[in-house]
Amino acid sequence: MADGYDRFQESSGSGFVMGLFTGAIVGAALGVLFAPKAGSELRSELSDQAGKIKDQASLGYQRAADTATQWAEKGRQKGREAFDRTRDAVSRGTEEAERYVRDTASGSSSGTI
Question: Distance between alpha carbon 93 and the CA centroid of its chain, in Å?
Fold first, then answer.
């Protein structure tokens, strides 16, 4: 039974050392990965990112303006069509009203109502 216990202690000790060694390597790699950049390099990256964001915003604005212009033109066309239909309907109604008045006036002047 002592043999099994001794093997456990040895493997535990080597596991601890291996874990310590692995942790040190991973920690060093993460330290290099997340190390702060030089100020000029950071400013350059921020400037590049700001330029990209500005370009994307400008493109989005242009697309929105183009779409709004298209919608406005469609609205003007629909408005003109509706105005023309309304004007034609009013004109027909006026002609019918005038015809009715003439027919009524000519019928009443002949004495038949």
Answer: 48
Tens-of-pLDDT digits for all 113 residues of the chain? Answer: 455 545 545 555 667 888 888 888 888 777 766 767 676 776 787 788 888 888 898 898 899 999 999 999 999 999 999 999 999 999 999 999 999 998 888 876 554 44
**Do 47 and 78 share a domain, yes or no?**
yes
> From CA 51, how far away is CA 37, in angstroms rounded?
20
Q: 30 and 55 in one domain? A: no
Provide the domain limits for residue 9.
Answer: 1-35
Instruction: Please report the DSSP string for 7-70 in residue order.
Output: HHHHHHHHHHHHHHHHHHHHHHHHHHHTPPPPHHHHHHHHHHHHHHHHHHHHHHHHHHHHHHHH
